[in-house]
Each structure stands twice: as C-alpha cells, then as structure tokens.
Amino acid sequence: MNFLKTVDAKFFHNEIPAKPMGKYAHFITIRITESYPLFQTDGELNKAKVRAGIEQKEPISRLAMFKRKQSTPERLTGRELLRNYKIGDWEKCDYNVDFSKTTPDCILYGFAIGDAGSEKSKVVVDTAYSITPFEDSHLNFTLNAPFENGTMSRNGEVTSRINSQDHILPQVFFPSIVTLKDPTEAGFLYVFNNIIRTRHYGAQTTRTGRVRNELIGVIFADGEIISNLRLTQKIYDLLSFAGKMQPPDPLNEDDVRDAANKAITELMTQEFISHTDYIGDRFLPLVNEIKSITSDEDKLKELLTQANLESSAYAQKHIFKSSDKAKKGKKASAAVE
Which pTM value belongs to this model? Predict the structure, then answer.
C-alpha cells in the first residue's frame, strides 16, 4: 500500500527485512522545551562538558537528553494510538512487562524479555545536547507541599516538606537526529507520526516536561550521518558568529531553525555516503502530505493497520519460527542425552 507521492518508493522496502540492507531514513529534529522539564539521573540534571563548536574550541557544559528519554515517550505515543484504534495485539502488549512481539512498537523500537526473546531496535536515537551552555539553560526552584489550607503550617507546626530542584528552562533547544533503519513506507510514517505527536519528555513524576518537536527535514541515505553533538556544535558556531546568542536571553526560534537548516546542509556536503535530502523548501510538500494522512482518522487507521500487518508478518517469519526451531533443537539435544 502506497501512502506517499512526494518521496520515491526506492527509499523504502516492501517488507521489513531480517538483515541490515543499507537503507536509512534520518529525521532531523529540534526539540524545544516549552515548560520546565527534568532530564535527570540520580536527582541531578544530566550534563556533559564538551567543545562549544566545531570552530569555537573552548569547552562548555551542556545539558544532555539521553537517548531513552527521547525514544521511550515516542514509542509510548505509538502504543497509545494502537490501543485507541484497537489495532493488532494491543490487549496482549504490556510495555516492559509482556511484549506481544507483533506490533509496530515491538518490531520497530525493539524489546527484550530475557530468555523469552529479544528484537533489536530499528529506531536509533543518540544523546542530544542543548545549544546553549548549562548555566544559561537551567534554574533552581524551591518546591513545597502545603497543607490543604494552602499554608506550610498547621496547629502551630511548620512542615518540613520543602525541597529544591534544578529545572530546564523553557525555550532551550536540543538538536536530535532520529534514524530508522531499513524503513518500509508505513514504518517511516509510523515513526514520523510518533515524533510529531509526542509532547512530554523527562521525569514522568512531574507535571511539567512539555517539549515540542520541530522537524526540519528528512534525509534518506545508504549509511549513518553526523552525530547530534556535531550538529549542535555547528549550529552554535553559526549563531555565535552571526551575533544571535545573547545570554542569558533565550535563543530566537527562527534563528535556530535557519541555523539548523544551514548547518545540516553544510555538514552533509562533507559526508562520504549517497544521500537525498528533504530540507528547507523541499521538505514542505512532504510535511503537508504526511499531515494530510495523520490528521485524517480514516487514513491514520489505514497507516496503523498497514504498519501492524508488516510487523506481524515479520514476527511470524523471523521471530516465532526461530523460537520454534530453538525449542525443537533443545528437545532433540535432550533426547540424545
């Protein structure tokens, strides 16, 4: 089933292959905080000391958004849609508890169930870094838990439920490249839709975490492309040399988008792989066509159904048959013994 007219079908497989076949779809994304999210480990915001830019060599500390903090919310968005429209084994599939092994989520994003089997993720996400330095991208808040009357004291006693926590500021930008290996057309649209729809990232215990994903392009290639860090450093150079960085003021989103488009275009000219870029004006027709599919309930159901059919066929052919062969092999060896 073909959904897209703006992209050549040669970039997609007709079915999900069992072995790597050298086709890659790279989603070039800018993740923009719109509230006060928490990307943390052991109670502290994740950060890394790295080189500021490609040309600007001084080291700076940057906020880090680890890969699982990006892929997990996005795959949960897809799972939610499958449940909403009751597509595939949505009732049997329980995230991190009991994977059905047949849904687009299981096959594209992978799973691991100990001795019960595993599937390597075909969606590759790496750590993303803030463009601006750590000190300009976070703020410490004092948190409290008042009594029902809204005060911190009751019957003459003052509560000790006061704490402080570093939060990431709004309008902090994290360039991120999401890669889908060996895509089918339905799988490509499934992952694209998950990225666009996901709105919350970071600590799930908080009521904050609002993040908007601004897709600026898609690159089809026969190999992997630049890292998130290199893209971030290039954007930093462009903004800095243009005088667009005025700390502690937040970056202007239009300036970041323009710099990101220029950065990815320039960096891709240095790559030693075959690639077709949908960036800038060339990306608009593709975005509009995908929007016409994902915003139409009937078309979206068709897309999800097709993605599920492909995943189920892959599971039957490459997961369950392999599992049956392994069981027969164990029984045969046990009989010999």
Answer: 0.90
Q: What is the CA radius of gyration of the chain?
A: 23
10 Å CB burial of residue 30 (0-12, 13-18, 19+) is buried
Query: Helices 68-84 & 297-314, crossing angle to 10 degrees?
Result: 110
Give the span between the Cα atoms of 264 and 258, in whole angstroms. Answer: 10
Q: What is the pLDDT of residues 148-179, one digit of tens each?
A: 555 545 565 655 555 567 889 999 999 999 99
Single-letter amino acid, residue 41: T
The pLDDT value given to residue 142: 55
How high is the pLDDT of residue 51? 98
Give CA–CA dist 286/284, Å, rounded: 5
Helices (H), 210-320: 228-241, 253-268, 283-294, 297-314
Q: Which two tokens stand for residue 64?
A: 């880090």
Q: Give Cβ neighbours of residue 25 (< 8 Å, ≥ 6 apart).
A: 11, 179, 180, 183, 188, 191, 218, 219, 220
Task: Write a three-state SS string for 73-110.
Answer: HHHHHHHHHHHHCCCCCCCCCECCCECCCCCHHHHHHC
Given a contact cutoff of 8 angstroms between Cβ atoms, the answer to whether 94 and 195 are in contact is no
- For residue 233, which of 257, 259, 212 has the smallest C-alpha distance? 259
Q: What is the pLDDT of residues 239-267, one digit of tens each?
A: 999 999 999 899 999 999 999 999 999 99
Q: Tell me the HSE value of 45 on the side-chain side, using a 13 A CA sphere.
A: 24
Q: For all residues of the chain together, what is the average pLDDT?
A: 89
DSSP-assigned letters across all residues of 101-160: S-SHHHHHH-EE-GGG-EE--SEEE--EEEEEEGGGTEEEEEEE---TTSSSEETTEE--
- Mean local confidence (pLDDT), 118-122: 93
User: Above 80 in pLDDT, residue 58?
Assistant: yes
